[in-house]
């Protein structure tokens, strides 16, 4: 099990030569007797770090926390994936670094721009899944990524939030390409000024003010004409943001949603005999339904949830569902599935098979991320009749 971040454990885990390079680069004049220290002696490093100016010390702290957060098998896979996107082969260099912290630290020193991008994508993969919404109706072409188009989006967001909430005089939009064809746009409109309490370096409690920023993420898949949007707010706000994005980056109006615009339709999972066909070369060993949430026709606020807890395998979710429906005197025809949790087991060619558990919420939310095994599962959602064809073009291309 990975340890929580702390200064001392990080300095103990990180190779001495990488620490020395980083401190001398970020804090010129960093006073530490590197050549006189024993291998496990970290106190001189911590003392010299503590003596740095507060702003410099905090910057180093943030960087080390980012390195720690990426120091995992998932983090290394993400680094290699994004390096491959820019035709940068890091495998031999990473092989020479012992330990996960060492590998990630080396990337931070040798390829800081790649590190920053990977760190951003890692944060995106851990954003609150409840705040994502998927939308069809975009033109099936690559969005305009020029500075002019990004400026249009920036100005439109500033104007929208100023008129709606009296904020966001400042905003910045950044663009990245991920997984070969998915366009990520990150927008950071300025928020309200807030006051908080903190300590100065000499231990004095003070009040400070800061204008935090909101984070909005637009993810476009051109071949499917879909937009995945992350923003904190209600459905109306997200629909407004989708419209603003489409007009800014495509110079077209967003197509209105209709009954066929539902992205995820989960009612096929009401039947225990629903099948999940796969191709042998993808080595998917098992697909199982772990949780189902129902709403009742005529009383949508009445919800029922059936779930298999932990690793329990001696009972199926459908056995639980049958008991619940019988208890509530409900038939399958009177309920709609509004959320499902599924588990997919994949043979990834490693000692242990990969198990991916994800949640789909009707009509437009899915917790799958931009990881190789997640992309594999995404390919199958239309074939399993869970997604209404929005990825059919991509699925054919990836087969």
Explain how this protein is built.
With 399 residues, the chain is an alpha+beta fold. It is built from 13 helices and twelve strands. Helix 5 (73-85) crosses helix 8. The two termini are 36 Å apart.
Key descriptive features of the protein:
399 residues, alpha+beta, 5-stranded antiparallel beta sheet, 13 helices, 23% strand, globular, disordered C terminus
Describe this structure in a few short sentences:
The chain is α+β, with helices and mostly antiparallel strands. 37% of the residues lie in helices and 23% in strands.
Topology (SSEs and partners):
Layout: H1 7-13, H2 16-26, H3 43-50, H4 54-70, H5 73-85, H6 91-95, H7 100-110, H8 112-125, E1 132-136, H9 147-165, E2 173-178, E3 182-187, E4 190-199, E5 205-213, E6 216-221, E7 226-230, H10 235-249, E8 284-296, E9 299-307, H11 317-328, E10 335-346, E11 354-361, E12 365-366, H12 372-380, H13 392-398
Helix pairs in contact: 4-7, 5-7, 5-8, 7-8, 9-10
